[in-house]
Amino acid sequence: MKIVIINSGSSSIKYQIIDMPINEVLCSGMIDRIGLENSNLTYKTKTNDIAETLAISNHKVGLQKIVNLLLDEKVGVIKSTSDIEAIGHRVVHGGSSFSNTVIINEEVKSKIKELFQLAPLHNPANYEGIVVAEEIFPTAKQVAVFDTAFHQTIPEKAYKYAIPNSLLTEKKIRVYGFHGTSHKYVAKKAIEFLEKSSKIITIHLGNGCSITAIKEGKSVDHSLGFSPMNGLIMGTRSGDVDQSVIFYMVNTLGYTLDEVNTLFQKQSGMLGLTGFSDMREIEEHAKNGNSECQLALEMNAYRIKKFIGSYVAVLNGLDAIVFTAGIGENSANMRKLVCADMEYFGIVLDDAKNEQKSKEIMEINIADAITKILVVPTNEEIEIANQVYELLA
Q1: Which residues pair with 210 in a beta bridge?
Q2: % of the chain surpassing 70 pLDDT
């Protein structure tokens, strides 16, 4: 079964064609910096490795570009769209409607649209991917895999907010959690590496960021909540902020609610602190003496440390921390900032190991460290393909 995996992020599209159940990747690639003049596109097969820099204005344009490559006579890996039996879509927010992987129909699409306001940077992009895929692959089964599903094991004492009970029972306001396919995948890989079912903290650092406490392979607490907006500092999202700031901005400073929402979702985080949302640029400017970028990196790491401390308490111990996603896998500097002065928890980084590059799992702690520090490349696409295949098979 050939499955196309479409993982539309807030400013990126990752994609793969995977032959299941043998997990053979026929092609892979991504587009990042969507909406900028210098968007990057990569496309890789066994015999071709293409990289382009071009302007990609939105997700629809990006998806069409990807399909053109898949069907190209010289570099394509399929002859017809009918070669594809299923499309697996990563969908960020499933709300209370979806706790499992589902085949997409009009009702499912309607529910995904209803959740736009809870994940305005993601669900619209996910929905766009579904609509375009339906047009381009009319014979394929369209399947949604929800980021929120992995976190259904979070206990009530952790997912319930201290607000009137009716808001949970009637309006379903609670912690849902996100990046579930990534946290699930890297936790599984880390447990295999450690050769035991462990107490693990997985740290997903990309344009969106989150951290999860995992015990016996199950999510028991998580930094993102009702929407993918709180918790850690992100590319354009603020993370945790005192909620009274919102009322002050509206009632005293004259902001509208839409303006506040836009500010916290799209103008805050690292962008608001530095003027840049891309970590590569921020680290380069920090290295060259930009004090705002230096402080923003320290703030980012400090917030992660606070969550690690609280999750060690929740887990009553710690066997490993896991760095993953674009920043977690590639930024030795951010890993160093997070692990500094964490000896109390047994977290001691080996600087030389930390500077290494690998596409496989890396152990970057000192040899006799009590707590393992792992870098585990995430593969949400493989995890999505497995779930799609299990559902359809």
Answers
A1: 204
A2: 100
- Half-sphere exposure (Cβ direction) of 111: Cα atoms closer than 13 Å: 18
Which residues, at least 6 apart from 229, have a Cβ–Cβ distance to it below 8 Å? 237, 238, 239, 264, 265
Q: Where are the alpha helices (DSSP H) in 201-256?
A: 244-251
DSSP state of 152: G
The residue ranges of DSSP E strands in 186-286, in sequence order, are 199-205, 209-215, 218-222
CA angle 93, 99, 100 (to 5 degrees): 105
* Strand 102-103 with 199-205, pairing: unpaired
330: number of CA atoms within 13 Å, CB side? 10
Give the Å distances, CA to CA, from 327 to 88, 99, 235. Answer: 25, 28, 11
Q: Report the predicted TM-score, pTM, of the whole model to 2 decimal places.
A: 0.85
- Mapped onto helix, strand or coil, the DSSP state of residue 162 is coil
Q: Go through 59-94 and write b for each residue having 16 or more CB atoms within 10 A of its CB, e for each that does not.
A: beebbebbbebbbeeebbbbeebebbbbbbbbbbbb
127 CA to centre of own chain: 17
Kind of pairing, strands 49-54 and 102-103?
Answer: unpaired
Q: Yes or no: is domain 2-146 CATH 3.30.420.40?
A: yes
Residue ranges of domains in the chain? 2-146, 196-375
Please, are residues 185 and 379 in contact by the beta-carbon 8 Å criterion? yes
In 3-state terms the chain splits into helix, strand, coil percentages (rounded to 5) of 40, 20, 40
Residues in the chain: 393
Q: Which active-site residues does the annotation give?
A: 147
**pLDDT, tens only, 215-262:** 999 999 999 999 889 999 999 999 999 999 999 999 999 999 999 999
Three-state DSSP class for 191? helix
Q: How far apart are CA 260 and CA 353, in angstroms?
A: 43
Q: Same fold for the domain at 2-146 and the one at 196-375?
A: yes
Give tens-digit pLDDT for 350-361. 999 999 988 899
Could you give the CA distance from residue 206 to residue 325 in angstroms, rounded to a whole number? Answer: 6
User: Are the beta carbons of 14 and 381 closer than 8 angstroms?
Assistant: yes
The residues, ordered by sequence, that sit 6+ positions from 313 with a Cβ below 8 Å of its Cβ are none
Classify domain 196-375 by CATH architecture.
Answer: 2-Layer Sandwich (3.30)
Taking the C-alpha atoms of residue 87 and residue 6, their distance in angstroms, rounded to an integer, is 7
